Structure formats: C-alpha cells, structure tokens
Amino acid sequence: MKIFVLNCGSSSLKYQLFDMQDESVIASGKVERIGMEDAILTHEPTDKEEVKLVTEILDHTTAIEKVFDFLVDPKHGVIKNVTEIEAVGHRVVHGGEVFSDSVKVDGQVKAAIKGTFDLAPLHNPANLVGIEAVETVLPNVPNVAVFDTAFHQTMPQNAFMYALPRILYKKHKIRRYGFHGTSHKYVCMKAAEFLNKPLEQLKIVSCHIGNGASVTAVNKGQSIDTSMGMTPLEGLMMGTRSGDIDPAIIPFVMDKEDLTLNEVNSMLNKHSGLLGVSGIGSDMRDIEENMETNENAKLAFDMYEYRIRKYIGAYAAAMDGIDVLIFTAGVGENSNLLRKAITDHLSYLGVEIDDEINNTRSKQIRRISTPESKVEVLVVPTNEELMIARDTLRIVKSSK
C-alpha cells in the first residue's frame, strides 16, 4: 500500500510518499509561500534529482494538485497514476479531549477538528484545509487524522489539570494537552525494540529536543506527564519560546513596556528562549560555537540544559524510577555537548555515558551509556512521518 503523508501549515506544506510494503520513502518535498505568485515547490524523488518549481500557487488545493502532477510526471515521478495512493495521513496538531487515537476522517471528525480551532489557531485551521484539499483532489481515497496530542490523553487528571477555578476547565477545556506525541510514541517504540524488551515493562523519559522541545514521562507505554501544556509555550526553554515563567510577569511587562496582549504573546513565543537570552540566534549550533567567547551564549546553553535536566529528574520521581533516557529531534540527536552536560549531572540516577560513542555522529539508533550505567541512554532518530504512515495503515485496515 502506498500512503501519502501530509503536514499543512497556513502558507506551506510538507509531504512524503511511502511504500508501506517495506516502509520506504518513494518521494518527499514541500511547498512554500502558498498564496503567492512566486510559490516554491521542491520535489525530491528517491534515486532521482531534486526539482524545484517557482509558480503561482494561491491555495492548498492547487498546491496538492501540483505535487501530484510531479508524483506522476514521466521524468520526475515515482508512480504511474495517483490512484496508486490508497490512503492519506494528515498531521493534526491538536485533538483536544475528543481524540485519544488517530481516526479516519468523516464529517463528524472535521467538525470536531473545527471545535479545536481556539486551542490551536495557528495550526488546526491549516491542517483542516489540507484534509479538505485532498478530499477535493482525491475524493475516493480515505484520509486519516493523526493528532500530536493523542498520545498524551493517557495522562491522569492530577497531571493534566491546572490549579485554576474548575469552571475554566468545564467551560473552556483549559488543561495540559502536550505535543510531540507522535514523536514520543515512535521513539519509545523504537527504544523498546532496540533493547529487545516489552514497552509495557519500561519506565522511559523521552526528550524531544528541537527548536520546539518537550520531555515526556512514559510508563508502561503510556504518557503520564509531559512538559508542554495547553499550548506548546509551556515547559522547556526552546529556540524562541520562553517555556515556564511566573505568570505574573505577563501583566507586569505589559504595564511597564506598554505592550498589547498580542505583543507580549509574540515576545514569549518568537523572541525569547535561546534567541532572547543569547542575542545571537535560536539555533543551538550557533550557541555552541560562541559559548567560549560570548557569556550570553554560555548562559543560554546553561539555562537550556538545566531546564531539561530538571524535567528529567521530575519525571524519574513521577514514575518512581527510570529505565531508559531517550534523546531525539534535531538538537537531541546532534548535540553531543548538550547530552554530555545533562547526563553528567544525573549520576544520582546511576547514569553513565560513553564519551567516545556520545561524540560519534550517526543517523542510526545507538546506546551512548556504558554497560555499568543503571539507566539505558539512547539516541533515537525520530520519524514522525513514518509514525503517521503506520497509524494511517492501521486505521484504514481496521475500518475495512
């Protein structure tokens, strides 16, 4: 079965086409600047040269039509006809409390996704636009929605509730939802497979550390707590997001700096984190390159590492122990300095890493802990698109 995986933003989309017989990627690509006269489509067929097209693409339906044109193109294509695509999996950021698993899309599902627009106003409307665009272009192909929040729906109430008047939860569903669920689920499954142990017997702390970052406590295969909250702003210090702060800072800064609510929201989401502290940028590579000569870069790194380490300790306490510590996503997979700084301060948990292995770059899953370490420390490359494709295959097969 060939499955098309789609991740739509407000003015862009990313895609991958999988052959699920061997889970290989046949083609991938992206469309940027949707809505503009100079939109850019980048198509990367496996074992063929990348091709770019700059043209007018005014909406997502047109973007998807052009992507499908490339997929069947005699020179750049990878399939003979779009009818070879038997299902489409969509990344949907927020499922609210409605969705605890991936689901085949129908009218009720689309209505429920619309009901979550207030919870993810930047993402869910675009995700729904992608679903409806595919329905227009491929009307007879099943669509499956895969939610970033679904994996975290196993959190107990004492973990997902905020200490606010309960009426706010009843009226507006204000609670912790968590994100990166597709990634956390994937890397935990891969870790259990790698260690040849049942996932249901493991206590795992999964660290998805990229420009956006979150830590999740996974006990017996279920998420029991996660650092991101009602929105992706809570939790760790990130590339441009502040993470945890005293909520009283918001009205204080608004008053002192004469900021509007939109301006302070932009400050917390787009101008804080590594960027705000260092003054250099949001990319960890730039931070690490300047740490020895720039004290603000060093401070940003130290704060970033400290926040991650605190959450690891908290989740070890939440699960009454830890068997596996996972590093994944762009920074987690590639920054040996960050992994070293974090794990050097986890000796109380019995963590011990092999510096030589930790310093070795690889795109494969690997153990960086020593044989004597009481906790298995793994670097697990994430693959959210493959997880979406797998869920899509599972849902489509179960619905037949």
From TrEMBL:
EC top class, as a word: transferase
Positions bound to ATP: 14, 208-212, 283-285, 330-334
Pfam families on file: Acetate_kinase (PF00871)
Reported cofactor(s): Mg(2+); Mn(2+)
Domain of life: Bacteria
Localization (cell): Cytoplasm
UniProt binding sites for Mg(2+): 7, 384
Gene3D superfamilies: 3.30.420.40
Site feature: Transition state stabilizer: 180, 241
One of the record's GO molecular function terms: acetate kinase activity
The protein's annotated pathway: Metabolic intermediate biosynthesis; acetyl-CoA biosynthesis; acetyl-CoA from acetate: step 1/2
EC number in record: 2.7.2.1
Active site: 148 (proton donor/acceptor)
Cofactor note: Mg(2+). Can also accept Mn(2+).
Predominant cellular place of this UniProt entry's protein: cytoplasm
Listed SUPFAM superfamilies: Actin-like ATPase domain (SSF53067)
Claim: Magnesium is one of the keywords in the record: yes
GO biological process: acetate metabolic process; acetyl-CoA biosynthetic process
Keywords tagged on the record: ATP-binding, Cytoplasm, Kinase, Magnesium, Metal-binding, Nucleotide-binding, Transferase
Reactions catalysed, as given in the entry: acetate + ATP = acetyl phosphate + ADP
Function text: Catalyzes the formation of acetyl phosphate from acetate and ATP. Can also catalyze the reverse reaction.
Subunit structure: Homodimer.
Family from the record: Belongs to the acetokinase family.
Record protein name field: Acetate kinase
